[in-house]
Amino acid sequence: MMVGDSTREHTSVTLPLAGESVTRAVGAALGQVVTRGDRIGLCGPLGVGKTAFVRGLAEGLGLRAEKVRSPTFTLVNEYLGGRLPLYHIDVYRLEATALDLLALREFLYGDGVAAVEWWDRICGESCHLRVALQFGVGTQRNITLTAFDPRYRHWVESLKEQKPTWL
User: Fold this and answer.
1) Which strands form 11-17's sheet, in the order they lie side by side?
2) pTM metric for this prediction
3) Topology of 20-161 in CATH?
């Protein structure tokens, strides 16, 4: 099933991001609710802030955010020592064949949290939460969080209902 498949029950919210610190704050808030085996699918153009979001996610997991680097050339960066392991995966340079996905299984379905940049290039896999970042006006970005898992639907609904202090 492809990401964004309208046949799956989901809940979405779109929020403005006034800079990298706010992008990281959303990621850090998510880091408080992720659990073992979660797959976070990140989508958006080059330079929009996907890695900044993952730095925030790392902070929320109790990891050192300054260690987080884009895995564009390494495919997977593994960060240990926090509440859960974080597997930061970038499939930008992959065609995402069945063999590639097989090689990534241990990370996608492992004991940690998989944050996958360019998730929209992976066909046939599902994520618990899709994070789509888009350029806005000037330095502003917009983030659309789409929850495909009941736990994340609750989190996304709470963002809709009350404006968090970090926005």
Assistant:
1) 11-17, 141-147, 129-135, 39-43, 113-117, 86-90, 76-79
2) 0.88
3) Rossmann fold (3.40.50)
